[in-house]
Batch of 2 targets.
Target 1
Amino acid sequence: MQPVKRKNFSEQECPIARALDVVGDWWSILIVREAMTGVHRFNEFQARLGLAKNILADRLKRLVAHEVLRVVPAADGSAYNEYRMTQKGWDLFYVLVALRQWSDKWIDGACDATLELVDLENREPVKPLELHASDGRLITIADVTIQSKKKTQARAS
């Protein structure tokens, strides 16, 4: 049986496909989730996620290559390296929140999880993510369309 070759979306025009090329498999998303919650070492990721070491090594390598994570010397001064979030990685926070909120709404039993996302200031659960127009109006898919970006044309001198 031949292994399934991973499709490469890095040259696709669609920004969603290009994003999936970086973090489009479940292990990568779960690694990012763990890194956001303070997991930094290979063995910690392996223990928390229970995935094979070769798969973990591959996903970490890809996330570092795409600058979602960076490798740094261990904070305790040991010979180990740690994986730390980059700003590019932290910007996936909204994606993870959206996935969680979608799951809470649509997956039976998902909202029964013992953990919830809580605002540190008022200790209340966060509200669902919303999409707003440039003027602040709340919008849905019925209020948007996809079109080509307007490009500034260079003037001939």
Note: Strands lie at 69-73, 81-85, 131-132, 138-139.
Target 2
Amino acid sequence: MAKSVAPGYVVVYPNREKASSKATKLVVVLLLLLSVALMLLITIGGWSKLQGLKALEIIWCLIYLVLAFYVGVRWSRGALTMAAALAVLLLIIALIAATGIASTSWFDRNSFGFASAETMFGGKGLGSDVLGTLTVLLVPIQALIIGFATLGFSQAWNIETEVPESEARNRGGRRPQSSSPEPAAA
């Protein structure tokens, strides 16, 4: 849907220019990518001992990567809310897995009678203590995602204003994209 902008004016997003908004965006993207890395380590390193969430964990990683793209490149506020909601769910799952509320925690699997984990490729997986530590690390990272995504949402990245092209050039130092098509030369 094309926007109609007065001639000589361009649309700018003033809240995206703030250093705090740029820092928040960067932190959210880095936290999402860190979560993906930890989930992949846990999934690959403990493949033989996971209890049925294998496909969901891979899908979760893909969703986090898509959300990181939309937050990082497109400044999507909707992706922030999705990231916060999924972080709440993952925080709960990681707390249950780390403490062993529903079954045996990773740390309990170091005792006699438990086999070591194997990777999804058939090799020796990560140790139970390492998998437990990675699972515990997911908890504060998800809490940080919730906090920073909420902060980013409150920064109103979607607010747009029309300013003269000269003012937009002074703000960013580059010629802004005009949303109205130029007439073709005859």
Note: The chain has one domain: 19-158.
